[in-house]
Amino acid sequence: MAKHAKANRKPAKPSSKSTTATASLQEVYSDVAALLRRHVPPFQVGNLVVRGKESLQLETPKPIIVPDAYGGKPVNWQFAAAILQKGYVGFYLMGVSGLKKAISPTLRKTLKGKSCFHLKTLDDQLKKDIATALDASAEIYKDRGWV
After folding, report:
1. Total number of domains in the chain
2. Cα separation of 32 and 35, whole Å?
3. Which of 4, 58, 59, 84 is the most buried (most CB within 10 A)?
4. What are phi and psi of 121, to 5 degrees?
């Protein structure tokens, strides 16, 4: 009888929720990527290759020497990046610890680790907060002579 009951079950309907979430994350990624592209130039698009993931990375236009990093070897230093993950958009901003005043409490709530923010939604205020943080970080890079 158990076999018969299984055979009469209706097939599960595809969930529209997952498609909506994916579309929404795509919009979040596109908006964050647009905020990043405002900083090209002086920064350049770098090579952030993550297989099967949509991503964008900005880095310094010329290699720089960062004390105590990479054995003193000049490298193109990352400024910011965005990557579309399965359940969130990763927004990476270098030097967050030096930006305490530029990071709003709302943006800070999405901080997971030292430099990665996990964004699941994006409203106008959060866009402004990200733009402010990017501008403040860009100023630090300019002050150091990196751009």
Report:
1. 1
2. 5
3. 58
4. -140, 165
